[in-house]
Design a protein that fits this description.
Blueprint (H helix, E strand, L loop, with lengths): L4 E4 L3 E7 L2 E9 L3 H14 L5 E8 L5 E5 L9 H10 L5 E8 L6 H20 L1 E14 L1 H13 L3 E7 L3 E8 L3 H11 L5 E14 L3
Antiparallel strand pairs: 1-7, 2-3, 3-6, 4-5, 4-6, 7-9, 7-10, 8-9
Helix pairs in contact: 2-3
C-alpha cells in the first residue's frame, strides 16, 4: 500500500516559551525551493532582531529536496531535529522556520534539540493535516432506465458526483481515486452487465482532512 501524501492543512504560527526563551514556529506549505527561500527571507525580515531563525523543509513526493539550517545554534541542535519532526509526521512540501529570542538561560544541546523539535511538533498539531489524493473523472453514459440504480450504487460506494448531463441518455461524471479506478471499472461493468459506456476524464488533486491513527 502506498503511503499517503500528507501536508499541513494551512500555514500557521505557534509560540512556546522555554526557560524564558521564545520559540516561534512558522509553518508554510511550499511547492518549490524558491517558495521556501522566499518565506525564509520574509521571516528573517520580520524577526531581524531575533537571536536565531532556524529552518527545515521537505519538498517533493519522495522528499527529493531536504534542507535544514542551525543558523548559529550549536551544530545539529536545531535544523536536524526540526527536519526529523517533519519526517516523523510524514509531511511533504512543508517549510518550518523556528525563530528564537534568547531569554538569558542556556538550554544545553539536549534542551535545544527538544525545544526545536517540540516547537515544530506543536505547530503541526495546530495547523492540522490533510491527505492529498489524485482523482480522475469517470464519465458514465447510462440509460434513463438504469439511472436510479447507478445513483444508488454511487452513493453506496461513497463516490462524489461532479455533474450530470441529460440528453438521449444521462452522462454522470464522478470523481474516483486513481488507485481505485480499475476496481470501480470492474465493479460497474459487472453490476450493470456491461450496459454502461465509461470514459476516463481529467484528473485533480483532492484534499481530505487526515487524522493520525
Amino acid at each position: 500500500m502506498t503511503a499517503p501524501f500528507l501536508t499541513i492543512a494551512q500555514d500557521t504560527t505557534n509560540e512556546i516559551i522555554i526557560k524564558k526563551s521564545r520559540f516561534i514556529c512558522s509553518l508554510f506549505r511550499v511547492e518549490s525551493e524558491e517558495q521556501a527561500q522566499a518565506a525564509i527571507t520574509k521571516i528573517n525580515k520580520l524577526h531581524r532582531k531575533a537571536t536565531h531563525n532556524c529552518f527545515a523543509y521537505l519538498i517533493g513526493d519522495h522528499d527529493q529536496i531536504q534542507r535544514e539550517s542551525d543558523n548559529g545554534e550549536p551544530s545539529g541542535t536545531a535544523g536536524v531535529p526540526m527536519l526529523e519532526a517533519l519526517k516523523a509526521n510524514q509531511l511533504h512540501n512543508v517549510l518550518a522556520v523556528v525563530t528564537r529570542y534568547f531569554g538569558g538561560i542556556k538550554l544545553g544541546a539536549g534542551g535545544l534539540i527538544r525545544a526545536y523539535s517540540n516547537s515544530v511538533s506543536q505547530a503541526i498539531e495546530q495547523a492540522g493535516l490533510v491527505e492529498r489524493v489524485e482523482q480522475a473523472i469517470l464519465k458514465i453514459d447510462v440509460a434513463y432506465s438504469l439511472h436510479d440504480s447507478l445513483l444508488y450504487y454511487l452513493k453506496q460506494a461513497n463516490l462524489e458526483i461532479a455533474e450530470e448531463e441529460y440528453g438521449a441518455s444521462v452522462i454522470v461524471s464522478v470523481y474516483v481515486d486513481e488507485s481505485q479506478i480499475e476496481e470501480q471499472l470492474n465493479q460497474l461493468t459487472e453490476r450493470f452487465n456491461g450496459q454502461l459506456t465509461i470514459k476516463k476524464g481529467p484528473t485533480r488533486i483532492h484534499e481530505l482532512p487526515y487524522q493520525k491513527h
